[in-house]
Amino acid sequence: MSALLKISDFSLDIDTFDGTLPLLRNVSLEINKGDTLGIVGESGSGKTMLVRTVMGIGPRQSRRTGGGITFDGIDLTGLDDKGWRKIRGVRISMIFQDPMTYLNPLFTVGQQIVDVIRAHHRAVGEKLPGRAACQARAEQLLGQVGINDPARVYAQYPHQLSGGMRQRVLISMALAGKPDVLIADEPTTALDVTVQAQVLALINELVAKLNLTVIMISHDIGAIAAVASRCAVMYRGEIVEQGRTRDILTAPQHEYTKRLLASVPEFGDQAAVAAKPQSAPLLEIRNIGKIYHSAGRDIRAVDDVSFSVAEGEVLGVVGESGSGKSTLARLLLRLIEPTSGSVHLEGKSLQALSPQELRRMRRHMQFVFQNPHSALNGRHNIADAIGEPLRIQEGLSGRALRAEVERLLDVVQLPRNFAYRYPHELSGGQKQRVCIARAVALKPRILVLDEPTSALDVSVQAQILEFLSELRAEMNLTYVFISHDLTVVNHICDRILVMRNGKIVEQGTTQDVFHAPQQPYTQALLASARATSKEAALAEAAAP
Amino acid sequence: MTSPTVPSQPPTFRERHASQIRQWRLHMHTFRSSFSTMLGFTLVVIFLVLAAVGPWIVPYPEDTMGAVHMGSRLLPPSAEHWFGTDEMGADIFSRVVVGARTSLWIGLVITGLAALIGVPLGIIAGYKGGWARAVIMRVTDLFLAVPDLALALAIVAALGPGIFNCMLALALVWWPGYVRLVEAKTLAVKEELFVESARSIGATTPWILRHHILPNCLSPIIVKMSMDMGMAILAAAALGFIGLGARPPAPEWGAMISTARSYMPDWWWYSFFPGAAIFLTVLGFNLLGDGLRDMLDPRSRER
Amino acid sequence: MLSFVARKLIALVATLFGVAVLTFIITNIAPGDPARLIAGPNATPDMVETIRTEYGLDKGLLEQFTIYMSDLAHGDLGRSMVSTRPVLDELLRYAPATIELVLVAMVIGILLGVPLGVLSAVYRNGPIDHVTRIFSMSGVALPAFWLGILLQLWFAVDLGWLPVSGRLPLVATPPPTITGMFLLDSLISGQFDLFWTALKYIILPAFVLSMPCVASILRVNRAEMIEVLQSDHIVAARAHGISALRVVGVYALKNAMLPTLAMIGLRFGWMLGTTVVVETVFDWPGLGLYAVSSALSSDFKPVMGVTLFIGFLFIVTNLLVDLAYAWIDPRLRKA
């Protein structure tokens, strides 16, 4: 049997101001009917570029420099718009990462699906079905992807749906033309962990039911293992390894694959440090609450939360999006004013401080933000960024400032000549190191880390987490570590708070929460996390 | 890691500024590779040079101050009078060239005043929020609720006609645009994490405004000022044309066309050349502003 | 949706009140004696005194303001010094001509601006794009009065295709007044010849007025189209196999129309203001010409009346734009 989709020795370049850069180098892949292929890679590996090029929706300035792509005997590299109409959506279709931005906000779900249905009928030259027939087909498609009330969703606009629902809608659109091949581009990345597990289960169900051929792209090995029987690993535009998922996960051959697998934290990994004897509370939070007014309704982002953080401990705060964990992080530092309650640092209330006192106090408590790309001002170079706290709090300038900046660059293990670079020239991990340098410049007592690794690749995440552990020991820091990722929390925290809808639903030592969760919500969260973890991936791969 | 660090050898200028040099090369590349931007740049440079040295290079400098030569009234363009002469016998070329200086002043005063009023108000409204924002934005909306030329006409009618009142009226009409622009930009920048990050290290509001907000608002302000130079010159010329701006014999392009209108269609050159001067000047500033936007706004770029 | 409209209407009244305050302030910033100003340059001291008491200018500023506002509320905008008729009557007489002119110009602006914007976005950096870029930049930069004079010279004097100025020939009888807009009235009353004549008269001024409008609608539409065409949901629509024509013409255009609509509203107001120039060039008997001739003869009440009236028209336009926004964007309907 000849391959359904064949990519042979394909290379792609992109033209930029700094010259021509290679995007893909000698990529060869064969996908047969009924295959489930996973493509694993980190950001910049070219995996998205590869599938977009297959669909003919790659970047405008890109140029093919060699090789070819054929689908069912048709050469896809030289297809015109007319030719594509017979391919896209009908033979090959695609689902995307962030379901919000991939649905048109101005059209109802129904209109968008019906348009896709009509386009397919036109493409294969069939008579266009009537309005009612289209609607019936659209509702059938919505039902197929597990939407309970298709008639209601049909009439709704994307902004009225939750993230998981939107992803289901996108999948139903991709299936509208009864395609042979479904390409899934990071279909779970933007979703909460409980929803991720549902979407993966749905994809598996559809593969079985509709006899689909699937190409799934992800940075998440767990997600790949859950769906794909074969797998390819991409690194810097090349496929470094491909084979059966089981073989690659259990016995990786290439150096990069080994490194990548090693950096994925294991779900069962316990915190390296055993629970320490409780010392005096450094930070005390008393009945804190924050209410936002929005569209005439009160939203309790944080609702009457109390806890304390002991000197030297790492406290994890876990919750899904919308649980109020980021609001809580900002309340801890009085970056936003609470509606009620107070925060006490060594017994002193932050709420009682005057603006000047608060500014002086800030040196003791620092914040590391989720997204290092926007946490640095693009118009300041790295020396400015790291030097800013020193200029503000210590009045340093000139030679003394420069020496201190270089010392901090050493601390975060970045080369000294980075001082003159600008944020856009640095990688995500390097930027996060700069942010950490900024945060520790004033030798704070406590560091609040708001999802410090969630915007980073998994191998970078491993490095940053390890570095954070070292730093803590060295500078005697206390961490409040906010995350949605239970695996990471399990890895580094002594104690855990689980948040949901602005409230703490469970708290205790990491050991207790992970091994004997009391609340059903915590149990569900753990179950979903376990389902997409590395162990589950390995177990899945090992199964026949 | 904890041992005292000796400052390393200071790097050379080239090393320290490698990033900026690349940025500037990219800017220059975007700028030069666009025909329309270069056209705009050339037009603006010619305009500025004429405004600077005009009175010393024109063939008949006395004609720009209202000299009368009854013998040479309304002559068509010739080798002697490139753009012809007007009803007073004055050389239109000389008057058009010297008019550049008047127009430059008009443009600078109007956009300068407008930005001076609008930018601080916009930053305050955007950053402070609350009642300060409410008051500033309501007043701004009021001014924007009346179309600019109509409002300027009302103000000039109240103050009395004349070039000075005309500039004042247009500046009063122009500032709300800057408030809107800067407020929107400030609101966006304020939401960026780096502003919150600066607050978390204890930066004061003035520090944040100076180091974070203002630098990030600068490019749209520069672009708008370039565009507005042209639009202000155009508006002042319109008021001059109506008869409420500069009065003859002052060499102002709009006023010249106003007079020339009664000599249409037989003496077409009288209104043609001042009008062309306005058109090319305004076009120059617009193309330049558009090019600057392409250069400074990374969104409109593709690299 | 109903509360949305209600809130917009309240905002409309508030803005209108604010504009009235603004005109009152402008009246009072005038250097020297407002009575003198209203009376005009040729008035005797006696006349000035009469006006002072008649207009209540001897009273306190606050009292004057109260009187001004209550007069406004009763539709009393004062009297014109030149014609001695009530300003409101004259405004209502001149308004249809201006509204007709602006509407025709707006139609030209949209019909040319939107398609050209889409074309230059789709064929970005191609020949069409370069031509429209120069064209649109010139459109904004062309002084309306100069372009008007040149077009009169060319089309009316040299070629003789179109009339030079005015709304209708002196000998022609205007159609029966229904809306006051000749194009509309002549159609309603079935006088197609008259419609054709009126069209020939309006085409030049409307074209001159619409030039900057075409240019800026084109620019905004192009920029938005370019951005929308790169957005994720358009990539998705293409990947789902929807034809390129439909992706551009329906999916992308609807998204790009939002900012374009804002520009259309803005330009509508701008054109209302620019009628003072265009109507002067073409002797078009509308609000702009009325304001200019009043300003030149220092007849102050009509100038303020026109300012207020044009402000009112613009505010109503903005309300309509807001409603159109909510009609296009479902996310706004709830808020």
Short description:
Chain A is α/β, with parallel strands linked by helices. The longest helix of chain C has 39 residues, at 244-282.
Structural class of chain A, by secondary structure, is: alpha/beta
Shape of chain A: globular
Q: How are the strands of the biggest sheet of chain A laid out side by side? A: 6-7-8-3-9-10
Counted by DSSP, the helix tally of chain A is 21
Portion of residues within helices of chain A: 25-40%
Low-pLDDT stretches of chain C are none
Radius of gyration of chain A: 26 Å
Helix tally of chain C equals 14
Return residue spans of chain A where pLDDT drops below 50 for at least 5 consecutive residues. none
Distance between the termini of chain A: 23 Å
Biggest chain-to-chain interface with counts: B-C, 49 and 57 residues
Describe the global form of chain C: globular
What's the helical proportion of residues of chain C? over 70%
- How many strands of chain C? 0
How do the strands and helices of this protein lay out in sequence?
The complex is a heterotrimer of chains A (544), B (303) and C (335).
Chain A: E1 5-16, E2 19-31, E3 36-40, H1 47-54, E4 62-71, E5 74-75, H2 81-85, E6 92-95, H3 109-123, H4 131-144, H5 150-154, H6 163-175, E7 181-185, H7 193-210, E8 213-218, H8 221-227, E9 230-235, E10 238-244, H9 245-250, H10 255-263, E11 281-294, E12 297-310, E13 314-318, H11 325-332, E14 340-345, E15 348-349, H12 355-361, E16 365-368, H13 372-375, H14 382-393, H15 398-411, H16 428-440, E17 446-450, H17 458-475, E18 478-483, H18 486-492, E19 495-500, E20 503-509, H19 510-515, H20 520-531, H21 534-542
Parallel strand pairs in A: 3-8, 3-9, 6-7, 7-8, 13-18, 13-19, 16-17, 17-18
Antiparallel strand pairs in A: 1-2, 1-4, 4-5, 9-10, 11-12, 11-14, 14-15, 19-20
Chain B: H1 13-16, H2 18-32, H3 35-57, H4 92-128, H5 130-145, H6 148-159, H7 163-190, H8 193-200, H9 205-242, H10 253-260, H11 268-296
Helix pairs in contact in B: 2-11, 3-4, 3-11, 4-5, 4-7, 4-9, 4-11, 5-7, 6-7, 7-9, 8-9, 9-10, 9-11, 10-11
Chain C: H1 2-29, H2 34-39, H3 45-54, H4 61-73, H5 87-122, H6 127-141, H7 144-158, H8 182-188, H9 192-229, H10 232-239, H11 244-282, H12 287-296, H13 300-328, H14 330-334
